[in-house]
Design a protein that fits this description.
By secondary structure, the protein is of the alpha+beta class. Strands 1, 2, 3, 4, 5, 6, 7 and 8 form an 8-stranded mixed beta sheet that branches. A hairpin with an 8-residue loop joins strand 6 and strand 7. The relative contact order is 0.27.
Length: 148
């Protein structure tokens, strides 16, 4: 029997750390309503040859404004997200690749994609990550925090 190879879109995400806090973006609609997301997003078709750090910089600027940070090039977590089929549109599988960045300075300016933000206590998230995240974000943050 021939294997069917899955196709994924790629979403680069960033967990910003400021000591024992992590920046999380609030969602009030869609599949993440009532939970949190991380800054980041999917790679555009025209960005195929663009350095991943440049793509992350674009996404960060779009979603939280021009802030100062130190970004770790190596991923710290991964997760999978499923976007349900909608009418004629097929189901989409998204691979989240989570990077860590140390917060330096700046004021968070939320885009229209999110309803607000919160600096979550890392230990609270570690104790019950499903209270804050789901799907690919949950899988990625559990990997990042070493939670099973």
């Amino acid at each position: 029997m021939k294997r069917a190879i899955d196709k994924y879109q790629v979403s680069l995400k960033v967990v910003f750390r400021d000591g024992d806090k992590m920046l999380s973006l609030a969602k009030d609609k869609g599949s993440f309503a009532g939970l949190y997301d991380f800054p980041g997003g999917r790679v555009d078709v025209v960005e195929f040859e663009t350095d991943f750090m440049e793509i992350l910089a674009r996404e960060i600027s779009e979603e939280i404004g021009d802030v100062e940070y130190e970004l770790e090039r190596r991923p710290v977590g991964m997760g999978r997200h499923r976007i349900a089929a909608d009418g004629e549109a097929p189901e989409i599988h998204v691979l989240y690749v989570l990077h860590e960045a140390q917060w330096k300075s700046g004021t968070v300016k939320i885009s229209e994609e999110h309803s607000g933000y919160k600096w979550l206590d890392v230990e609270e998230v570690r104790k019950a990550p499903e209270r804050f995240f789901k799907s690919g974000n949950l899988e990625a943050v559990k990997t990042y925090l070493g939670v099973r």
